């Protein structure tokens, strides 16, 4: 949810444009996003320099999964009013959603003085630094967001994800517990709880949490991949395959999904397609957990022991503990 209040029309705007704008606000609050867009468009036809209408139409588009359309509207709002802080904050979120973390940071820096004490600003700053692989700065921002608003569920959830990526599992567990206490239906927190349980080897329990997350967002690609992985761990590969394939169709840049697909083929004793997908995961993100362990296992299954040992050695450098143990066991090092 975009963390700003809806603005109201100013008295110096034409009455007609203002009325359409207010109707759009009502529809936006009712989550009738298509209708909201229609009313804001009417307002802009009456008053083309209506910056608030561009911004709020962007909100409606963003919430209706039209992120590129939202980005264009936020930019029009800023072009119309270069000091429109809320539009910069919203554009930063849209840019991050489209993979432009650098652009997001630029927008956030533009409004830093104005929004430094906003929990939502600090949340987006944390998300942006996370995407830029700057974990120390990300944690500082998340800490500040939670200090400003201890009930900021999204900040707790995202800080937990950061802790999880750093293998600080107890800190992650605490944040997830707090997030779910505040909102038991927070889908990202439910998914993160599933990841924590899976990390502890409690795959059946983990599956119940990811199913709850999917009941909120049935086509979220990360949740689909997580469920596929859990099904593989529970020896249910026939159920796992369509889920991971769907996840990749929805987001073909997720290294974890390619790792899952590689693991599926590895369990089916199909080493070449396993290696193809595992190497794709490596290309996208070599820090994925146990990736080099699985690459080495696939090379060994194919009878290429030297290549397997080389993969496990790369895993040692990457901090892959499973790869390290396998290298010591299989390669005499």
From TrEMBL:
The keyword Repeat applies. The keyword Repeat applies. Keywords: Repeat, TPR repeat. Coiled coil: none annotated. Pfam families: TPR_16. TPR repeats lie at residues 17-50, 51-84, 119-152, 153-186, 187-220, 255-288. This is Tfp pilus assembly protein PilF. It comes from Spirosoma oryzae.
């Amino acid at each position: 949810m975009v963390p700003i209040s809806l603005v109201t029309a100013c008295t110096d705007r034409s009455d007609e444009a203002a009325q359409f704008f207010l109707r759009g606000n009502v529809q936006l609050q009712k989550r009738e996003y298509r209708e909201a867009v229609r009313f804001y468009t009417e307002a802009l036809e009456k008053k083309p320099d209506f910056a608030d209408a561009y911004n709020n139409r962007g909100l409606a588009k963003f919430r209706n999964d039209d992120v590129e359309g939202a980005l264009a509207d936020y930019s029009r709002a800023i072009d119309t009013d270069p000091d429109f802080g809320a539009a910069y904050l919203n554009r930063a979120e849209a840019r991050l959603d489209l993979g432009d973390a650098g652009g997001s940071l630029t927008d956030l820096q533009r409004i830093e003085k104005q929004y430094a004490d906003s929990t939502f600003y600090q949340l987006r700053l944390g998300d942006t630094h996370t995407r830029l692989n700057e974990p120390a700065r990300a944690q500082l921002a998340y800490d500040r967001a939670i200090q400003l608003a201890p009930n900021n569920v999204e900040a707790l959830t995202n800080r937990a994800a950061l802790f999880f990526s750093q293998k600080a599992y107890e800190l992650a567990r605490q944040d997830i517990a707090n997030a779910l206490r505040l909102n038991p239906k927070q889908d990202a927190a439910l998914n993160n709880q599933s990841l924590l349980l899976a990390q502890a080897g409690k795959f059946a329990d983990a599956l119940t949490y990811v199913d709850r997350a999917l009941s909120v967002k049935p086509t979220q690609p990360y949740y689909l991949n997580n469920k596929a992985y859990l099904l593989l761990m529970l020896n249910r590969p026939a159920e796992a395959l369509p889920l991971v394939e769907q996840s990749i169709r929805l987001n073909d840049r997720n290294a974890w999904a390619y790792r899952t697909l590689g693991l599926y083929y590895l369990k089916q004793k199909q080493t070449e397609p396993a290696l193809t997908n595992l190497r794709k995961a490596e290309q996208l993100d070599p820090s994925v957990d146990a990736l080099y362990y699985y690459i080495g296992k696939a090379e060994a299954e194919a009878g290429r022991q030297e290549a397997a040992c080389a993969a496990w050695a790369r895993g040692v450098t990457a901090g892959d503990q499973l790869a390290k143990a396998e290298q010591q066991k299989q390669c005499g090092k």
